[in-house]
Every structure is written in C-alpha cells, then in structure tokens.
Amino acid sequence: MDLDPICGTGGERVPVLAARDAIAGACTILHSAIADVRNIIYQVDGLTDPADAVAAQD
Q1: Tens digit of pLDDT at every position of the chain (58 positions)
Q2: Is residue 28 classed as helix, strand or coil in its secondary structure?
Q3: Is the whole model's pTM more than 0.70, yes or no?
Q4: How far is Cα 10 from Cα 52, in angstroms, rounded to an integer?
C-alpha cells in the first residue's frame, strides 16, 4: 500500500476523510500481517496455540 500520497510527500494532499480511510485500511492489513507472523513463529517453535507459548515461558 502506497502511503506517500496520504502523507503529502508528493506535494498534493488527499482529503482528510480519504486519508483516514486509507490509514484504517493499512492498520487492518498490518494487524492481519502481525497475526500471521505470530502464528508462523508459534509453528516454527513447535507451538500450536498462543496459550502454549505463555505456559512454556513459566
């Protein structure tokens, strides 16, 4: 996702409402990506559930 137009780095700025929607969309994608990475780490560590990771640390 290209956020440069939202940040105004190219000289033009988009309306605030459009920027808010784009940022909200980017946050949704980021949250999903973080969850995916977390799941991959658990699988690599041999854990299947985030609760297992907490129990393993105790």
Answers
A1: 566 666 655 666 667 677 788 888 889 999 999 999 988 888 888 866 666 555 555 4
A2: helix
A3: no
A4: 47
DSSP string, 1-58: ---HHHHTTTS----HHHHHHHHHHHHHHHHHHHHHHHHHHHHHTT-SSHHHHHHHH-
Are 22 and 6 a contacting pair, CB within 8 Å? Answer: yes
What single-letter amino acid sits at 44? V
Instruction: For residue 38, give the nearest of 51, 25, 26 by alpha carbon.
Output: 51
Per the CB < 8 A criterion, the answer to whether 43 and 35 are in contact is: no
